[in-house]
Amino acid sequence: MTAVDAADLERGIIIKLQEIQADETLKYAYDIWQSREAHLKKRIANHESRVSNLTNEIYQLLGFASAFQGLLLTAVAQASQLKCHNVGIPLALSLFATVVALAGVWQKKGIITELKRTLSTEDLVRKAYRIRVQILEQQGSKFMFKDLPEVPNGGTPGPAGTCSSKWVTYNNGVVVCILLLGGICSLFIYRVLCEA
């Protein structure tokens, strides 16, 4: 694109925007659609930030569960007074840590799944408003409301299913890790106290 073409394009856009500003109905529609798109863009950014924070919380929860299990293993391994008849309390503590970690991951996973569903829907709506603004900018005073595409009303999110399936796989991995950690720690506690 040459400098002359760019200047012509810019002049054309300015003229179309002037046409929109001159027509009260087009100006109102243009302002509303731009503000809705901006609002949705901000909401999407907030949701993405929240998903990131919840994912970090899951990692922290895994870290706390691992640290607790490690502390429990260290205490059992170094306790000379504990014998097999005392195995119930350390096993119960290990089970409790595993269940709490699983419950926390499950709760956060539910929130993340819902946020991703909302993100997908809101992004479709935002794109629809963006398309409306672009069409209005391109057509100026020749714009016809009847030719506009519909704005989605929050129906089924389309291609985001692939993202959800990745999350399910990741989530299963997290659950398996927690269960393995709890199982290995329980087995170690039992072996140290009852087979030593």
Please describe what this structure looks like.
- It is a single chain.
- By secondary structure, this protein is mainly α.
- It has one domain.
- Helices cover 82% and strands 0% of the residues.
- It has helices at residues 3-22, 24-78, 88-139, 161-194.
- α3 packs antiparallel against α4 (161-194).
- It is rod-shaped, with a radius of gyration of 29 Å.
Overview in brief:
The chain has 196 residues and is mainly alpha-helical. It contains 4 helices and no strands.
Number of domains: 1
Q: First CA to last CA: what distance?
A: 80 Å
> Percent helix among the residues?
over 70%
The helix-and-strand class reads mainly alpha
Percent range for β-strand residues: under 5%
Count of alpha/pi helices: 4
User: Which residues sit in consecutive blocks of at least 5 with pLDDT less than 50?
Assistant: 155-164
Query: Topology as H/E string?
Result: HHHH
Largest sheet: none
Average of the residue pLDDT scores: 82
Shape: rod-shaped
Taking Cα atoms only, what radius of gyration do you get, to the nearest Å?
29 Å
Number of strands: 0
Q: What secondary-structure arrangement, pairings included, does this model have?
A:
Elements: H1 3-22, H2 24-78, H3 88-139, H4 161-194
Helix pairs in contact: 1-3, 2-3, 2-4, 3-4
Q: Can you tag this structure with a few keywords?
A:
single chain; 196 residues; mainly alpha; 4 helices; rod-shaped
